[in-house]
Amino acid sequence: MTPRRLPAPANYHDAMTTPASYAAIDLGAASGRVVVGHVDEHRVALEEVHRFPNFAVTTPDGVFWDVLGLWRGLLEGLAKVDPGLELRGLGIDGWGVDYGLLDHEGRLLANPHSYRDPRTRGLVEQALGVVEADQLYRLTGVQPQPINTLYQLLAERGQRLDAAGTLLFIPDLLAYWLTGEPMVEATVASTSQLYDAGTGDWAWPVIERFGLPDHIFTPVVQPGAPRGALLAQVAEATGVTARAGVGVTAVASHDTASAVAAVPAEGDGFAYVSSGTWSLVGVETAGPVRTQAARAAGLTNEHGVAGTNRLLKNMTGLWLLQECRRVWSLQGDHRDYGELVAAAAAAPAFGPLVDPDDDSFAGPGDIPSSIRDFCARTGQRPPGDPGAVVRCILESLACACRLVLDQIEAVTDRKIEVVHVVGGGARNRLLCQLTADAAGRPVLAGPVEATSFGNVLVQAFGSHASLIELRELVRRSIGPHHYAPRNPEAWSDALDRFERVVLRRQH
Fold first, then answer.
1. Contact criterion met (CB below 8 Å) for 114 and 56
2. Of 93, 98, 117, 255, which residue is the catalytic one?
3. Is 26 part of the annotated catalytic residue set?
4. Do residues 111 and 66 make contact, with C-beta atoms less than 8 angstroms apart?
5. What pLDDT, in 10s, does the model give residues 484-498?
6. In this structure, is the dihedral angle defined by the CA atoms of residues 144, 146, 148 and 153, taken in order, positive or negative?
7. Separation CA 427–CA 436 (nearest Å)
């Protein structure tokens, strides 16, 4: 596969003097990739050298990740890095909450479960009978969701958990296989509902109250900490043996934390939307916000780079569109995302709206039918053709974003002046424009590769990373696309209707 250079300014190569190069391994729910980042004092350029598929596998025993497939793809990608390039290091980021359990000899006990596995159904309610919701929020700052590591571990109780010696989240597990050093990084640990965002350590009272074995929780390290050198067999298998000093860094291992670190913002009057399978809408704060108002608004706290806290809401995102496209493809409609979004742009505006977080959309299935059923249940005319369905999805996501922005402003008593959209959703121009329209604020879209930018830059700056410096480098490297809000009166009516739809669903 010929390496694909991702967009960089036209004069980038003229500005390069002696860049330092780092490998970033990004793991997503649909694919993984190996990217090489070239960093100098002026700019960052990214070069994708390998992409490999990732998917959850459903068996009679549950839904699992093919972690060995991820490992194979990772090694194949590192082997494709230009052998003449002197890598300074590498780092791994991925999604949160999911983990692998190692036995006392350091061997993986079984394939990790996917957060979409139904084994946690009913466990949130059981857990809140042990520790009340407000107390659990004060201790962890995280909203109770069935996907959280806490409830997955409660579902593990028995033979496998009894045999476990160490818990490692997915990025930590793969880094362990690279280095032989087991450690957990703070940003990914903070997604678990077992981490205390105030102390920067595990929430030991929560672990004790639920009777979880405390020995499986290894020390937590901060973004930028060294994980260790590559194992000799890994270096040999990937052809990096001649690259002296190549080590693995604990980057912001949660992909959203890496992406937020690369938001090209100036000042602090911004919110971000990390837009992909999930849509994470939030702001940065100096510390966790664990008030009753924040809990009632459904806001969660996650650790960020340089000691920051990310106050956010984790919502269903482009998963709805991804699943619709999968279903339509099975039915013979093989249009790509660009063609579907073009059909949505041509569809009538301000049609039916859905709550993206409705339970009927949570798992794989016939999402187009679920959308039509939701509309019928809420007294709306269901969308007809795929263009109308996609329009419904995108307008609903934009309305949901606006609702969260208003909640964050109320909870933090701070004005949000601009919204930065990063990640895969930043290339969806219709979604970005609808988000600006619904939010009533300008949207700056990009970089699409924010996670890779953040991964590379934390490696380059280490534990002394300055977000001001990181973000300035990103701004120099890409030009965000600007979207100005339009049609405020029409969107005011749509937002009122969306709130009624959400409230009707909740009651």
1. yes
2. 255
3. no
4. yes
5. 999 999 999 999 999
6. positive
7. 14
